[in-house]
Specification:
Length: about 130
């Protein structure tokens, strides 16, 4: 029996907005440009988001002063990390997984606007058996 994708419709809408930004802007801009364009596209499409979502970290049950900041939290449950790099790498993937771990959200998206001629994206699902 096939398993239904978690937050399928929400992810579809987020990636659709990202593709629109990529199709209009192309590659080659700094990440901040894509961040602003994506914020505006989310507004146009009615996608709920929090930009620069602060993520609290704990160490052995002690709240740390240091915080992470994700690019977007969409629908109150999906982390969206954006890049403008020549290609996605394991450091970006680890960052996205760490954001999921910090928030306890189940789904994260990593998108790259910097790859020429190809929009790149990856979907991550945090499961109970992930060990950090």
């Amino acid at each position: 029996m096939p398993t239904e994708l978690l937050y399928k419709e929400e992810v579809y809408k987020i990636i659709g907005a990202c593709l629109e930004v990529y199709n209009v802007m192309g590659s080659g801009f700094l990440e901040a440009v894509y961040q602003e364009c994506l914020r505006r596209e989310f507004d146009l499409r009615g996608i709920p988001y929090v930009e620069h979502k602060r993520l609290q970290l704990d160490f052995k049950g002690i709240r740390l002063d240091t915080e992470y900041e994700s690019d977007f939290e969409c629908y109150g449950k999906i982390i969206l990390e954006i890049k403008a790099a020549s290609k996605l790498n394991d450091g970006f993937r680890a960052q996205t997984l760490n954001y999921l771990n910090a928030t306890k959200h189940k789904v994260g998206l990593l998108v790259n606007f910097g790859h020429h001629k190809t929009f790149e994206w990856e979907r991550f699902v945090l499961t109970e058996d992930v060990d950090f």
